[in-house]
């Protein structure tokens, strides 16, 4: 529920305010698996497209009623649904990767600049939709485009590792920046910026090595087993 506390600046939101987006994801994953369980692939696609189309309409409606659309779960579903729709697409039986590469490139070239332009005009009801389209298009291009420069960029070791530790980077970056605020490091921004970036990156790397990797290894103990193997055991 963290995302609902943030707009009200309560004490509950103070120390963990950065987790608002993770809260939205958790709320989504409490519901979406059940939808996947009981709906067909075609029904899932229709649901995803409907939510993607309705989200900006809901944001526009609520933006005139003083509702905080930035951290509201119902206003951020299009980004999650865009990812779900991409997963449905690539898992469909008749999926041909090359069929959508050009469309993804065009979508990215339109959506990415549109996100910046609409943000400049504080039109966040459409910014989030543009960001979702740009992000999904870029992921698709990184996976299926045959452009060598894009493949090299997607496989760059630094970029890959940064993506690997991105969870910790997102969660922990606020700590050094808050310390810098207390120390008034903004007076020496040129010196402080690289130090803060290095501290954030280092903290995320330690989190990955000492906390996240050991935790993820626990999944091996909960792997599903085929019914036949279980019966024989």
Features of the shown structure:
single chain, 233 residues, mainly alpha, 3 domains, disordered C terminus
What does this structure look like?
This protein has helices spanning 2-5, 11-14, 20-38, 41-63, 77-90, 101-120, 124-144, 148-154, 157-164, 166-172, 174-182, 189-217, 227-232. It has 233 residues and is mainly α. It is globular and about 55 Å long. The termini are far apart.
- Total helices: the number is 13
N- and C-termini, Cα separation:
42 Å
Largest sheet: none
What level of helicity do the residues show?
over 70%
Radius of gyration: 21 Å
* Multimerization status: single chain
Find the count of extended strands (DSSP E, 2+ residues).
0
Briefly, what is this?
The chain has 233 residues and is an all-alpha fold.
Topology at a glance:
Blueprint: H1 2-5, H2 11-14, H3 20-38, H4 41-63, H5 77-90, H6 101-120, H7 124-144, H8 148-154, H9 157-164, H10 166-172, H11 174-182, H12 189-217, H13 227-232
Helix pairs in contact: 4-5, 4-7, 5-7, 6-7, 10-12, 11-12
């Amino acid at each position: 529920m963290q995302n609902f506390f943030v707009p009200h600046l309560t004490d509950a939101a103070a120390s963990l305010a950065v987790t608002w987006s993770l809260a939205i994801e958790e709320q989504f994953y409490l519901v979406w698996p059940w939808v996947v369980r009981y709906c067909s692939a075609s029904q899932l696609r229709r649901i995803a497209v409907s939510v993607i189309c309705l989200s900006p309409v809901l944001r526009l409606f609520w933006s005139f009623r003083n509702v905080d659309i930035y951290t509201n779960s119902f206003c951020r579903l299009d980004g999650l649904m865009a990812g779900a729709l991409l997963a449905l697409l690539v898992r469909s039986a008749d999926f041909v990767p090359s069929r959508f590469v050009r469309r993804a490139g065009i979508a990215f070239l339109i959506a990415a600049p549109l996100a910046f332009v609409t943000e400049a005009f504080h039109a966040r009801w459409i910014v989030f939709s543009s960001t979702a389209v740009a992000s999904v298009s870029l992921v698709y291009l990184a996976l299926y485009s045959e452009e060598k420069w894009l493949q090299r960029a997607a496989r760059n070791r630094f970029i890959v590792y940064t993506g690997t530790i991105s969870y910790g980077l997102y969660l922990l970056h606020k700590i050094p920046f808050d310390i810098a605020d207390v120390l008034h490091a903004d007076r020496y921004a040129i010196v402080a910026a690289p130090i803060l970036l290095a501290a954030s990156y280092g903290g995320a790397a330690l989190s990955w090595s000492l906390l996240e990797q050991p935790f993820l290894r626990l999944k091996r103990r909960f792997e599903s087993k085929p019914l036949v193997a279980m019966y024989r055991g």
